[in-house]
Amino acid sequence: MEMENRAAQPEPGYSQPPGYPPTDGYPQPGAYSPPNAYPQSSGYPQPPGYEPTSEHNKQQATSNITIVHAPVASEPEQHVDDNMIISIVSLFCCCIIGIFAIIKAQESKESLRRREYSKAREASQTAKKLAIAAIVLGVIGISLGIFLGVILPLILVSSVAASY
């Protein structure tokens, strides 16, 4: 209780600043009016050239409205295979060409999303060609590696052993 009284009264030695009426901390409603305040209005002002509406004007305005629905010309959805799976497989056979195949497959997917079917088809065909090239080069490289690493040394060792 003593704390509540202390909070409401200024500490001893301090007084209310001169020129201000004593308040309880909140401004009185309607006590402050800003200078050059805008006049109170019920809403936005009418735009220039606008006639106030009457019941007759409202009926006339609604009767003159015509809504026309024009059909939107669009291509029917087409299915274009983006060849992403074969591009990912080609990545394991030949990394560099496989990366380009994946990029083209993603391009095809994005073009398909934008409904640009001719670009999607073109990018898809490029991705497929790159993926096949990567797989062929990978198979040739693996075959050559197996031949040079395993079969050729066996042939050389057997020919040297046969000469002794």
Could you tell me the number of beta strands? Answer: 0
Portion of residues within helices = 55-70%
Distance from N terminus to C terminus (CA atoms, Å) equals 117 Å
Order of helices and strands: HHHHH
Count every helix, treating DSSP H or I runs of 4 or more residues as helices. 5
What integer value in Å does the Rg equal? Answer: 43 Å
Whole-number average pLDDT?
Answer: 77
Poorly predicted sequence stretches spanning 5 or more consecutive residues: none
Based on CA inertia axes, which overall geometry fits?
elongated
Task: Look at the helices and sheets and give the structural class.
Answer: mainly alpha
Range of strand content: under 5%
Task: Describe the main β-sheet briefly.
Answer: none
Region (Disordered): 1-60
Family: Belongs to the CD225/Dispanin family.
Protein name: Interferon-induced transmembrane protein
Main location: membrane
